[in-house]
Design brief:
686 residues; alpha+beta; 5-stranded mixed sheet; 4-stranded mixed sheet; 25 helices
């Protein structure tokens, strides 16, 4: 599929007359349905191919731009109905074509015109229109934003991948938004953004929530406001004084422009069902929907109720492994971190000065030096960042303090501050070039994971145990990071410190796929190796300990130091692994194939691990996969800490998220919904 496939298909569809010699429409409903089924079967016979052509998913991909084009009045709404009847025909799986994964290319015009003609006949045989273009909330909202841009004088282009504005127009619009923010004053805009989150229930236990607002009926609503983008523009103008004479109106105008800009990017879900499957032919768009949504809406943060504890423990684990900390010793760092956290707020910027953090152990000179190391001056905040695609220039998440003037520093909201404190200290440690830093970071994450589990009151049974695969001295050695056991459950945890890259957040689907492979698939590969042994004679560690699965339920959790946003959504991960199983990715640019190979290698390794397990269990592959995928989790360390606190054990901690989904795509939003309906309290200690 290319960007022009949309136009190619429409040219075929709009030039196809109803030339087939069909009989009059039967009066009897049963006869109409019988003929309709026959027409759909004919479409399958015409289009489906077993080994080559376009992926079947291509037809589904075209539905979105066709619906938007119809809503914009550019094509007859009938075209949307026709493409849906073709999609319906190809999705049938009860005949000789059920194993076909391809359709003939659009270059076979005569075949496609026959199929389109039969789809039109099937449409005429229907007793009512199942595909009214106004029924679908996402397309309706996106088309509405497109119409407003056209009224403002901008041109909207439609392609296979949906609507778009010219890059120069995007830059012009973003510059307009930023100029309005500057006139309002950056701190005023940020204050309004944070107040909005509090007033609208988008704050939970201090976390700024950015989960999708979805329902089961697809009711029409306005697109969401890309507050993360607005927040980062506002950070560029923290020191700007308000010059606007109509601040309320101007802020409303900036909100409206940003909302419509985000809607044209079309990465927002409106229906809960949108997140339940991944089509391999739409792999790029599916990933972009996740990662670019996060860039527009999602704040990079650590859960505020656990962030201070996390930082203090992380620093302690690093020093215990022999990694020297910058400037001062661990005890001083802990005291300094606690002082800053105590002053910070979950929903406000707080003004501070080094003298507020002086104590018996840290004098003003030491504290001032730490401030210099941790702060960025306001004039350099997000310097050069203008559009949501310029993530490499968005530096605010990597500094916990902002220096506004000689004597004024600002602490951002606690969740953002905590994550930024970790990022900045880690950057300072990398600058020190200690040869064992990365090894120590891996060990620290394992210890933090064990700490999180122990906070339930039940410590993990296995931590960093090694085993050999074979009996000789040269047999390879593998490590199990962390294991938690109950009578009914065995939970494996593998730790990876892989962060989500800025390139991924800018919408680079290949970078996102590599991040996903290294943060989630690689740990799954390791745990598949462990599971193979558990399904056999068990794991026998070099220390003399052993581990057996028995009849218990096995859960696998990948733990990363920071979150990967919407890519951690469990429904998405299930759909993605199912779609990628047995598939190889090819980069559009051969120069990027080396990166694609990293993903392919991870997929192949996971497939090999799964095959090794089912060779022992004897289960059919499809049955095993249905059982395997729901048992795979991906959590950041702060999310794991938050879930474990107050829970009786790790299984109880996971229970609220495992039993229901609200379709938001954001783990903290899911937790907040679980708390709202009483699920969190159900599994927590009194």
């Amino acid at each position: 599929m290319t960007a022009s496939s949309f136009a190619t298909y429409l040219a075929l569809a709009t030039s196809t007359p109803n030339a087939e010699n069909f009989k009059p429409i039967p009066d009897v409903l049963a006869e109409r349905r019988k003929e309709q089924d026959a027409q759909l079967k004919e479409i399958r016979g015409l289009l489906l191919k077993p080994n080559s052509g376009l992926l079947v998913d291509a037809v589904s991909i075209l539905r979105k731009p066709i619906c938007i084009a119809a809503l914009l009045g550019r094509i007859d709404p009938e075209q949307y109905t026709l493409i849906n009847y073709i999609r319906d025909a190809l999705s049938q799986s009860n005949d000789d074509y059920k194993d076909c994964r391809f359709v003939v290319p659009f270059s076979e015009e005569a075949t496609w015109k026959q199929a389109i003609s039969r789809a039109r006949r099937a449409m005429e045989l229907a007793d009512f229109n199942h595909y009214d273009i106004n029924r679908f909330s996402r397309a309706y909202a996106v088309a509405g934003a497109c119409k407003r841009w056209e009224k403002r004088g901008f041109q909207i282009t439609l392609s296979t991948f949906g609507p778009s504005l010219d890059d120069k127009d995007v830059s012009k619009i973003c510059a307009n938004i930023e100029a309005t923010i500057r006139s309002l004053g950056g701190r005023n805009v940020i204050g309004n953004i944070l107040a909005w989150h509090t007033a609208n229930g988008r704050m939970y236990e201090g976390s700024l929530l950015y989960g999708r607002i979805v329902d089961q009926l697809g009711q029409h609503r306005e697109p969401a406001i890309p507050f993360h983008f607005l927040y980062n523009l506002a950070l560029k103008h923290l020191g700007a004084a308000q010059t606007s004479t109509h601040p309320k109106d101007d802020f409303g105008r900036a909100i409206e422009l940003a909302r419509d800009l985000g809607a044209v990017f079309d990465v927002e879900s409106y229906l809960v069902y949108e997140n339940m499957g991944v089509a391999i032919g739409n792999f790029h768009n599916t990933l972009v929907d996740r990662i670019f949504y996060d860039e527009l809406f999602g704040f990079q943060q650590w859960q505020p109720t656990v962030a201070e504890h996390l930082l203090r423990e992380w620093l302690g684990h690093l020093e215990a492994t022999g990694i020297p900390l910058p400037v001062i010793q661990m005890a001083g760092w802990r005291r300094f971190v606690s002082s800053l956290f105590k002053l910070s707020s979950v929903d406000k910027f707080i003004v501070t000065h080094p003298c507020e953090h002086v104590n018996a152990e840290l004098g003003l000179a030491n504290v001032s030096q730490l401030f210099e190391l941790l702060a960025i001056t306001a004039d350099k905040l997000n310097d050069g960042y203008s559009t949501p695609f310029e993530t490499a220039k968005r530096n605010a998440p990597y500094f916990p303090l902002y220096r506004l003037s000689k004597d004024v520093w600002l602490i951002p909201p606690r969740g953002i501050f905590g994550r930024a404190m970790y990022e900045r200290i880690y950057a300072l440690l990398r600058d020190m070039k200690h040869p064992q830093l990365e090894r120590a970071m891996g060990a620290a994450l394992e210890l933090l994971t064990a700490d999180a589990i122990a906070s339930t009151g039940k410590a993990p049974e296995v931590l960093g145990e090694k085993y050999k695969e074979g009996t000789t001295k040269r047999s390879p050695t593998f490590e199990v990071d962390v294991v938690s056991e109950t009578a009914a459950d065995l939970i494996l945890l593998e730790c990876k410190k892989k962060p989500l890259t800025n390139a991924a957040r800018a919408g680079n689907s290949l970078s996102a796929a590599v991040d996903l492979a290294q943060g989630f698939l690689d740990p799954l590969v390791q745990m598949a190796r462990h599971e193979k042994h558990l399904c056999g004679s068990g794991l026998h560690f070099i220390s003399g300990k052993s581990l057996h699965l028995g009849e218990r339920h096995l859960t696998k959790i990948s733990v990363t130091m920071t979150d990967h946003g919407s890519m951690q959504d469990r429904l998405f991960l299930r759909g993605l692994i199912s779609a990628l199983y047995g598939v190889k990715l090819t980069a559009a640019d051969p120069a990027n194939q080396k990166e694609a190979k990293k993903v392919n290698d991870a997929i192949a390794a996971l497939q090999g691990g799964v095959n090794a397990i089912i060779s022992l269990t004897g289960e059919p592959l499809d049955k095993f996969i249905r059982r395997y995928l729901p048992s795979c989790w991906w959590l950041s360390i702060d999310q794991l800490y938050f879930l474990c606190r107050g829970s009786a054990d790790l299984r109880a901690a996971l229970a609220p998220l495992g039993s229901i989904t609200f379709g938001s795509g954001d783990i903290m939003t899911e937790i907040s919904h679980s708390a709202r309906v009483g699920l969190l309290a159900k599994y927590r200690r009194a």
